[in-house]
Amino acid sequence: MDGLWLIAGLGNPGSKYDRTRHNAGFWFLDAVLRRFGGELRREKKLLGRALKTSLDGRDVVLLAPETFMNESGQSIRAATDFYRIDPGRVLVAHDELDLPPGTARLKQGGGHGGHNGLRSSFRHLGTPEFWRLRIGIGHPGTAEQVTPWVLSRAPADDERSIEASIDKALDVVPEFLAGRPGEAMKRLHARDRSAD
C-alpha cells in the first residue's frame, strides 16, 4: 500500500450544487475520469463516492465526499484509515477564492484560508500537511458576498477558464504522482503565468 495516493475533490453532493463554484473539486474528479476512464461508486464505509484505479501507472483512490463540504474531512479520514494512506500522500482539490478563474496552484501544507472543507480536513486528519490543488474561482469583493458567490454558478467565460485550469493541472498530475512535485508545480505555475 506504500505507493497508494488519495485524490479527494471537495464539493457538495446533489444536482442543486452540481455546477456551483464551490464544487470545483468535484469538477476536477470528473475531468480525471474523462481523461483516464472509470466511474465513482458509492462507498458507504468511505462516506462518499470512490474508485481505486491507476493513473499513468500509479495506484490512486479517487474520492468525492458525500458529507457536504463542512464535514469533508470525515470522508477523507475514513479513506486514509481504510487504505492506510499517510496524509502526506493525500491531494485535496478545492475551489480557491484567492486565485482568479483560469489559475490552478499546487501546494503542500499552509492554512485553510476560511475554507470549510479544508478546515474539516485539518481537524479529521490531524495535520495541515497534505497536498492541495487550489482551483481559482475569483473573489466577489466582500466577505458578505462569499457564501452566495461560492454556491452559485460562474458566468460561462469564468466556467471555461476554470475548466481550462483543471485541464492544465491534469497535465502535471502524472509527474506529481511519480514523486516529482517540484517539477509538477514548476510546470503548472509557469504555464499558468504565461496564460495570464
User: What's the level 1 CATH class?
Assistant: Alpha Beta
State the CATH topology.
Rossmann fold
Content of β-strand: 15-25%
Q: What sequence of helices (H) and strands (E) makes up the elements?
A: EHEEEHEEHEHHH
Main β sheet profile: 7 strands, mixed
Looking across the biggest beta sheet, what order are the strands in?
2-3-4-1-5-7-6
Content-based structural category? alpha/beta
Percentage of residues in helical conformation: 25-40%
- Alpha plus pi helix count: 6
Instruction: List how many beta strands DSSP finds.
Output: 7
Q: Separation of termini?
A: 40 Å
| Average pLDDT metric | 93
Defining key terms:
6 helices; alpha/beta; Rossmann fold; single chain; 196 residues; 21% strand; 7 strands; seven-stranded mixed beta sheet
Describe the secondary structure blueprint for this structure.
Elements: E1 5-9, H1 24-36, E2 41-43, E3 48-55, E4 58-65, H2 72-83, E5 90-96, E6 104-108, H3 116-125, E7 131-136, H4 146-150, H5 156-177, H6 181-195
Helix pairs in contact: 1-5, 2-3, 5-6
Describe this structure in words.
The protein is α/β, with parallel strands linked by helices and 196 residues long. The chain has one domain (5-195): Peptidyl-tRNA hydrolase (Rossmann fold), CATH 3.40.50. The chain contains 6 helices and 7 strands. The chain has helices at residues 24-36, 72-83, 116-125, 146-150, 156-177, 181-195, and strands at 5-9, 41-43, 48-55, 58-65, 90-96, 104-108, 131-136. A 7-stranded mixed sheet has the order 2-3-4-1-5-7-6, with helices on both faces. Helix 1 packs across helix 5, helix 2 (72-83) packs parallel to helix 3 (116-125) and helix 5 packs antiparallel against helix 6. The protein is globular, with a radius of gyration of 15 Å.
